[in-house]
Amino acid sequence: MERQTEPTTAEVDASTTSRQGSTEEATASFHPSPAAAAAGPPAPRGEIDAAPQLNRFHLLARLGAGSFGTVYRAYDPQLDRQVAIKVARTDKFADAAEIEWFFREARAAAQFKHPHLVPVFEVGREGRYAYIVSALIEGSTLASRLSQQRFAPQEAVRILRELAGAVHTAHQKGVFHRDIKPSNVMLDPQGAAHLMDFGLARRLTGEPLQTQAGELIGTPAYMSPEQARGKSDTVDARSDLFSLGVVFYELLTGQRPFKGTLHEIIRQVEQAAPVAPRRLDPRIPRDLEAICLKAMARDPDDRYPTVLHFAEDLRRWEQHQPVLARRINPLVSAAKWVRRHPAITTAITAAFLAVGGTVIYQQTRPAWVDVRVSPADSGAKVLLNGELISLDPEGRALVPHAPGQVRLSVTAKGFLGEYRDATLVRGKERTYLASFELIPNAGYARITSDPEGAFVEIVDTRGKSVARGATPFHSPRLPAGTYEVTISRELYAPLQQKLVVPPGDSVVETNVGKLQPLIAHASSYQFLQVVRKQLAQKCDLVVRDAPLQDVVKQLVERTKIPLAFDTQALAEAGIDLQTPITQDLRGVPLQAILRTIFQPLGLTIVPQGNADRPGTLQVTTRERARRQMMTVVYPFAPEIAQLSGVPGAFDYQSLIHNLMSAIPDWQAQTGDGGTIDIDPVTRSLVIIQTWENHLKIDDFLKNLRESRLGQAGRQLDNP
Fold this sequence. Notes:
Helix content: 25-40%
CATH class of the largest domain: Mainly Alpha
Strand order of the largest sheet: 1-2-3-4-6-5
Strand content: 25-35%
Number of helices: 22
CATH topology of the largest domain: Transferase(Phosphotransferase), domain 1
CATH superfamily of the largest domain: Transferase(Phosphotransferase) domain 1
Number of strands: 34
Radius of gyration: 35 Å
CATH architecture of the largest domain: Orthogonal Bundle
Oligomer: single chain
Largest sheet: 6 strands, antiparallel
């Protein structure tokens, strides 16, 4: 089977122009593993070079690359699922305007909801990288399958009907794909087709055209003649129909209709008619040949009016009904005969008009309306000029009606209402097709804050709480409308603002910004918990006479937690980084491993950074650590301060006394800088102490809180 490489416009541009892209390596937020680094030569410029993580997503495998970006298989730990991530090439997208061009793909695809369109979940930025997260479709591309097998006519028709339904959904939203080809179609393990990659999509409204006049858009072998001529401002839904016809041609014949070099292909698309499919394979049904060639007509007016009409003709063939497509060759022959015999043609035309006018005048046939509502189980109520129409279980109805102007209206609970004005014409062959894709009257909200972990409550207009959670917060499905949102967090001023949830199952993104702290070091306790979580991570360490420096390096590689030596302090204490270490520790928390290694050497760790951006864990001497003080604000918990036993009476002095007594070496380690105070505004504990003492203080307060809660519970059980 003859196969050719698809020349794309991006490849042509690359031969004559170049972009001034950045040649810097990935930013420090990506930490390649040694195994990944040894896997082979570096990825092309603009890809993430063996990075195991992008934002919260863990990159698992590189699936492929195109002119605009690279696609990875990734794992989303937040929703516990695998996804596909398309990362923009940094050498192709050097500034904000070009990144916005890349996000056009997400804005186009995120509008759609169709079983044969790959859904887009979210977009984001991480350092220099812009990315789009979409559903992961297991299987192979249609292009890959075409290189291995020939499709039966029934299978080809099924695939094209599925793609036509997906494209029609995009057209209803005012979006053209403009790059439909087998490599942009995924076949899942069940054989179902899924259209992807709206990277060249153009919206009808709300977005300017991103190309210059005369620039080619799409893949030449599959583009329409109007695209090949560079008239991008005239490209409409019928251009996508032409591309579907080319894919159908390839499925039926096993060959592309246009072949050769890039310039030869463009010339053929503009000027030459494709070889009729039955000349390549006489076994192809004549009706399918007619449908294919009508979809590929050079003049857009000679094609089907819409992709939906194309899909309907395919359905007629499947159900053994006469198709509406007309073969081109007889029409061409008739046109030539008319030009050779103008006088005879005039006479025949006059007679035909006279007879035809009489027949039409005498006709009493009604007009017909073909109504289709999706989803079929929506319980929709359809009115035709005020009269109720009954739908079948598939959401369809074929009804007669008097010709003329009519209005169709559709209403359904939980969906936006729709109406459509139409002109009906006599005759069943002129049946008016009215297809309604109902838009859900509901949506979602995603709320973020800085810092994260703030409590979120969404209240409707009646004051009823409809959703609660912590930032970053993903709301459940909410009816479209206006809500009141409250964001609160300990030690920070609360916020309230309006939230408008859009219809169409869309997601409204709300970033409340940076919360205003009520006290200095408000995020210090969060930072303490972040570091404690890092130290609680379990890992294995088995070494024998390994240098101290190599042991720490192994721990960094296994836990991804950066550790750095305070070289000046170690040098002053005379500690050699080549000191041999022998340990066999398996499934042990990192904190226990570090204590086992460092205590005999008189070493310990001191964390650097803050809650927003945790830094390294600095390995230093215990003597220097005792001189390094940290301020931590412990949020106030009333139950731990009620030591007097009287509700509402807080015995702070007893609390401070008990707290200092619980740490035997409090005085020895505090030096001149250790203090403990009560903030009267937030009623929180503000403590300046060493890192090791803060760990003991945190444990003491947690144990005290659990003890007081236990006492309160026993009092409730035994009143």
